[in-house]
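Ticket #4471: structure output looks truncated?

Reporter: J.K.
Steps to reproduce: submitted the chain below (166 residues) through the standard prediction queue, then opened the result file.
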Amino acid sequence: MVQIRTAAWRAAYAGLVDAEVLAGLPEEASERYVRHLAEHPDLELTLVAEKGPYVIGFAVFTWDRTEAREEGAGPGVPGEVQMIYVHPDHWSRGAGRALLREGERWLTEQGLLPIRVWEMEGSEASHRFYTRYGFVPDGERRTAEISGAVLPCARLALPKDHQVDD
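Returned output as attached by the reporter:
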């Protein structure tokens, strides 16, 4: 999963994030995060996409971390697509959509609505992926710091009437 996350970042954010930052993405940080997921399975849903014997992508769904800190986690707190990464060799073949569809089902079953996602501003591939699924910008913005780079992010949300497709 570490290699998928790193490859996806390097492909999706080339031109948006300094090439040196992308080249030096700290794989140990990804490894720490993967260990965190394994140690806290009750906090999130982690899904993987496979092709044959190979993992080609993964996604993590949870409650909106900002609102959960303020209100406590549980039903009534918005859900969050924390991350979806598919190896670039497998983009536009349905793996990301399948991961998102299953995550939406789980978040809906947990009562974690509406469902939100943060995307890096300027990432056309990311924006196209989420808006084709039905997400719309909700006007919220923030910055994220990755390896010293400050990156502008925008939040998108699924409309309340969105239907999970099959």
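Triage note (M.O.): checked the attachment and the full token line is present. The first strand starts at residue 45 and ends at 51.
Status: closed, working as intended.
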